[in-house]
Amino acid sequence: MHRYGWTLALLTLASPALADTTLRVMSFNIWGGGVNESKGIEETVAAIRAAGADIVGLQETRAETDPCEADSCPPAGPSAAPAIAAALGWHVHDQVAQNGALWANAVISRHPIGAVSANDLGVEIDVEGRKVWLFNIHHDDEPYQPYQLLGIEYGPAPFIKTEAEAQDYASRTRGPAMELLAADMAAAQDAAAIFVTGDFNEPSGHDWTEAAVTAGLHPVKVDWPTVKRLEDQGFVDTYRGVHPDPVAKPAFTWTPRYDETATDDHPDRIDFVFAKGTGLQVKDAAIVGEDGPRSDIKVMPWPSDHRAVVAEVTF
After folding, report:
1. Among 16, 29, 248, 293, which residue's Cβ finds the most Cβ atoms within 10 Å?
2. β-strands 271-276, 105-109 pairing
3. Where is the signal peptide (predicted)?
4. pTM over 0.90
């Protein structure tokens, strides 16, 4: 008995500790991958390469219909994701399910993609022998609470004034999709790391703070419920983990195609990379966009009506 136990102890001591795995995970609303402006995928591919990403959650891989209205804008035409993945020499999974958490989504990865979750929101990825799950979502943008608070017409939604009203409308608008996500994430319980990427069409309470209101960035303080729901489950908002001050780094991802002083839109951070895992650390995070003050990684020409987010983590 003692001899057997001693042998096991020696084997345990002799086994090398697992090295950290480093990943760069990107969320990128590609606005049709160029087709909305009658372009190819080349600019989108260049942006992904510039970000140094290993895995990307893509949203809006298909074209917008014409007209694209607040309450009706189904995707049209083929997905650009397979061609983007092929240009990078990567793997691809087009998320083809039709539900409230998807709008022409796809996951592309330099690492092999395996199992798919029940509602098609997530994929298992083999990263150097470690199991990682990435869930990639696109939330509904109507009603859009920043517009409701600012009196900007967008669909039939009424205007509102308070934090409580904004939270209520946000929960009703995106709550059902978050239930689908919660169900799918049960598949990832034994993963080394879990990521959630997406165009949330809802800001973060880390941005709509009293300090940001005083600085004139947002109209009222709001602790937005969708981001909070993920954080309550242990996920880290990677960008704010590295850049915690929303006044110094507003990190607007919506939209590089609009004047920030315009009264019929509102600049905001609605694109995210969330991460969770035992021992996971966020090493870096950046906004990827056009040559301008809002981008940490600058790429020209910039192909989308969103800036992207990339985060580097170790686990």
Report:
1. 29
2. unpaired
3. 1-19
4. yes
Distance of CA 166 to the CA centre of its chain: 21
C-alpha–C-alpha distance, residues 290 and 3, integer Å: 65
Domain 21-314 has CATH 3.30.70.100: no
Confidence of residue 66 (pLDDT cuts 50, 70, 90): confident
What is the spatial order of strands in the sheet that 22-29 belongs to?
91-95, 105-109, 55-59, 22-29, 308-314, 281-289, 297-298
Beta bridge partner(s), residue 288: 297, 308
Contact criterion met (CB below 8 Å) for 106 and 130: no
* Lowest-confidence region among 13-22, 35-44, 83-92: 13-22
Closest of 27, 34, 43 to residue 300, by C-alpha: 43
Contacts of range 263-269, beta carbons closer than 8 Å, 24 or more positions apart: 263/152, 264/152, 265/152, 266/146, 266/147, 266/150, 266/152, 268/146, 268/203, 268/207, 268/218, 269/203, 269/204, 269/207, 269/239
pLDDT in tens, 136-184: 999 999 999 999 999 999 999 999 999 999 999 999 999 999 999 999 9
